[in-house]
Description:
The chain is an alpha+beta fold. The protein is 26% helix and 49% strand.
Amino acid sequence: MGNMYRSWQLLAALFLLLASCAGLTTRPEPPALVLTDLRLEGATLFSQRYLLDFQLQNPNDFALAIEGMACEILLNGQRFATGVTNQAVTVPAYATAAVQVEATSTLFGVFRQLTELERTQAQPFRYQLRGHVNLRGYGRLPFDYEGEVSLLPGELQRSL
């Protein structure tokens, strides 16, 4: 009888352990990114440096402790700039926080975008933000957002 009682205890302990681990392995949803500002900080003949301001929106019911972020910006399917930050920020549950990313583009990338803009004058400009945030105690959490902006007079106001 004592052996059977111990077996039930071990089985119950195993179920409790598995149930508690299940809550820890919930994959967080990535934060939504809203690009709020893009400023040219410097330029040389071959590269340009920008500061990107983002609002990170946490859709989770728990805080996200972000230790850094890497991203790239694509315009009309072509890479325009890449950026990183080691700025640590904790985004509370269902809240937002600001992050700045330093990004770089190349002369070739800017030239490619100007050529594409000239070719597709009347069409909206598609953009994509993709990359990952590093979460403390979790690792990388990828994100990928896209949208479009019309560069025609009067259309820019309506698309924002």
